[in-house]
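INSTRUCTION: Work out how this chain folds

Fields: amino acid sequence; protein C-alpha coordinates

Chain under study, with its fold:
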Amino acid sequence: MDKTLLDLKKGEKAEVVAIEGGHILGMRLEALGIRPRKQITRISTQLMGGPVIVAVDGRQTAFGRGTAAKIKVKPLNH
Protein backbone atom coordinates (compact mmCIF):
# COMPACT_ATOMS: atom_id res chain seq x y z
CA MET A 1 0.00 0.00 0.00
CA ASP A 2 1.37 3.39 -0.97
CA LYS A 3 1.50 5.97 1.77
CA THR A 4 1.65 9.70 1.32
CA LEU A 5 2.86 12.47 3.56
CA LEU A 6 -0.76 12.87 4.71
CA ASP A 7 -0.71 9.35 6.18
CA LEU A 8 2.18 10.04 8.55
CA LYS A 9 1.50 10.82 12.19
CA LYS A 10 2.99 13.78 14.02
CA GLY A 11 6.69 13.09 14.65
CA GLU A 12 6.81 10.10 12.29
CA LYS A 13 9.83 9.80 9.97
CA ALA A 14 9.76 8.44 6.45
CA GLU A 15 11.80 8.17 3.29
CA VAL A 16 10.49 9.93 0.21
CA VAL A 17 9.81 7.29 -2.45
CA ALA A 18 8.33 9.35 -5.29
CA ILE A 19 6.67 12.62 -6.14
CA GLU A 20 3.54 12.26 -8.20
CA GLY A 21 3.19 15.60 -9.86
CA GLY A 22 4.35 17.54 -12.82
CA HIS A 23 7.79 18.88 -13.60
CA ILE A 24 7.13 22.22 -11.89
CA LEU A 25 6.11 20.58 -8.60
CA GLY A 26 9.17 18.33 -8.76
CA MET A 27 11.44 21.34 -9.25
CA ARG A 28 9.79 23.25 -6.42
CA LEU A 29 10.18 20.36 -3.99
CA GLU A 30 13.76 19.69 -5.15
CA ALA A 31 14.61 23.31 -4.28
CA LEU A 32 13.34 22.60 -0.77
CA GLY A 33 15.49 19.45 -0.52
CA ILE A 34 12.57 17.06 -0.93
CA ARG A 35 13.36 14.30 -3.41
CA PRO A 36 13.35 10.50 -3.54
CA ARG A 37 15.54 8.71 -0.95
CA LYS A 38 15.48 11.76 1.34
CA GLN A 39 14.35 11.43 4.97
CA ILE A 40 11.42 13.60 5.99
CA THR A 41 9.66 14.08 9.35
CA ARG A 42 6.07 15.21 9.76
CA ILE A 43 6.10 17.93 12.39
CA SER A 44 2.42 18.77 12.60
CA THR A 45 -0.78 19.39 10.75
CA GLN A 46 -3.44 22.01 11.20
CA LEU A 47 -7.06 21.16 11.82
CA MET A 48 -9.75 21.74 9.25
CA GLY A 49 -7.56 21.30 6.17
CA GLY A 50 -4.67 23.58 7.05
CA PRO A 51 -1.05 23.02 5.99
CA VAL A 52 1.12 20.00 6.72
CA ILE A 53 4.44 20.99 8.33
CA VAL A 54 7.52 18.84 7.70
CA ALA A 55 11.24 18.93 8.46
CA VAL A 56 13.97 18.04 5.96
CA ASP A 57 17.68 18.54 6.67
CA GLY A 58 16.89 20.57 9.80
CA ARG A 59 14.59 23.00 7.99
CA GLN A 60 10.84 23.20 8.36
CA THR A 61 8.42 23.92 5.56
CA ALA A 62 4.66 23.78 5.11
CA PHE A 63 2.62 22.29 2.26
CA GLY A 64 -1.00 22.35 1.33
CA ARG A 65 -2.79 19.04 1.65
CA GLY A 66 -2.91 18.61 -2.13
CA THR A 67 0.87 18.81 -2.41
CA ALA A 68 1.36 16.55 0.62
CA ALA A 69 -0.87 13.93 -1.03
CA LYS A 70 1.52 13.81 -4.03
CA ILE A 71 4.58 12.98 -1.91
CA LYS A 72 4.78 9.18 -1.63
CA VAL A 73 6.70 7.92 1.39
CA LYS A 74 7.90 4.75 3.12
CA PRO A 75 7.72 5.03 6.94
CA LEU A 76 10.97 4.32 8.75
CA ASN A 77 10.71 1.84 11.63
CA HIS A 78 13.14 2.40 14.46
About this structure: Residues 2 and 36 are 14 Å apart (CA to CA). Residues 3-75 form a domain with the SH3 type barrels. fold (CATH 2.30.30.90). The radius of gyration is 11 Å.
